[in-house]
Specification:
It is built from nine helices and eight strands. The chain has one domain: Metal-dependent hydrolases (TIM Barrel), CATH 3.20.20.140. 37% of the residues lie in helices and 15% in strands.
Length: 287
């Protein structure tokens, strides 16, 4: 338990060891907040044991940028290609063609970030649903995994996804923040679950701690969703509001404590799951 406490906010995080390799399955590394120090951020993540990072594509332009970054660091960086529901109004035939072209690139390991977000309704809900279905079809046609976003739209989301699930390969509900009932509906659809720093937030993530053990060992993955959702239990506290992939161990530690598991065992499981889910090779040496 002392080792777990070390990485959930009491003292310093565990040092990197050869047996504790982590994979961040969702990092918005193309975000402009990284423009001045992106290389240093990648290096700091590696030194913290985050040996592979999947860069989230959330728009047409963002997906292109994600591929470009991933191409520069083979087997260390990978990318998804998709349009976030906030940007659903931008989705047109040209976007669909681009995403299909990107899906054929070796750097792309999933379609998305796709889904529904009724929390802010930056795009009309009917437009979001249409955009979601287009990207589901790309995943079906390409055979790639599907990387999904859902916020305050569970009923429409689960209904829509259920209609296509038997034609899809792997599916992950990224940045899960919902209820126990919602979790089990996703698990019943054979979805994987991505857990972020939301679990480290005493203001809004406390409810999740009760049922994190419900997630089967082979369905669980971890992510930072950087630069968003910085773990609030970081010690010592960091003044910047920007999240970084180097803080993935804090998410792992909090999750391990919730599940009453040793962090090293959970690290091995989540890393194995990510490599299997996204069909990743092992990371190449990096200096």
């Amino acid at each position: 338990m002392r080792a777990i406490l070390n990485i959930i906010g009491v003292g310093k995080p565990l040092p990197r060891t050869e047996t504790m390799e982590l994979i961040d399955i969702g990092c918005n590394l193309t975000h402009d907040s990284f423009d001045h120090d992106r290389e240093e951020v990648i290096e700091a993540a590696h030194q913290a044991g985050v040996v592979q990072i999947i860069i989230t594509g959330a728009s047409a332009e963002g997906s292109l940028q994600a591929v470009k970054l991933a191409r520069a660091r083979p087997q260390q960086l990978f990318a998804t290609a998709g349009v976030h529901p906030h940007r659903a109004s931008d989705y047109d035939a040209e976007t669909d063609t681009l995403l299909r072209q990107l899906a054929a690139q070796q750097e792309i390991v999933a379609v998305g970030e796709a889904g529904l977000d009724y929390f802010r309704d930056f795009s009309p809900r009917d437009t979001q649903r249409t955009c979601f279905e287009h990207q589901i079809q790309i995943a079906i046609d390409s055979g790639l995994p599907l990387f999904l976003h859902q916020r305050d739209a569970h009923d429409d989301f689960i209904t829509l996804l259920s209609g296509y699930r038997d034609r899809l390969n792997e599916v992950v509900v990224h940045c899960f923040t919902g209820s126990r009932g919602e979790l089990h509906e996703y698990l019943d659809l054979d979805c994987h679950i991505g857990i972020t720093g939301w679990i480290c937030d005493e203001r809004r993530g406390t409810h999740m701690k009760e049922f994190m053990r419900d997630i089967p060992f082979d369905r669980l993955m971890i992510e930072t969703d950087s630069p968003y959702l910085k773990p609030r239990n970081l010690r010592p506290k960091v003044k910047s509001h920007r999240n970084e992939p180097r803080w993935l161990p804090w998410i792992l530690g909090t999750l391990a404590a919730c599940r009453d598991e040793h962090p090293h065992a959970l690290a091995e499981a989540t890393t194995r799951n990510a490599r299997t889910f996204f069909h990743l090779g092992r990371s190449s040496p990096y200096t």
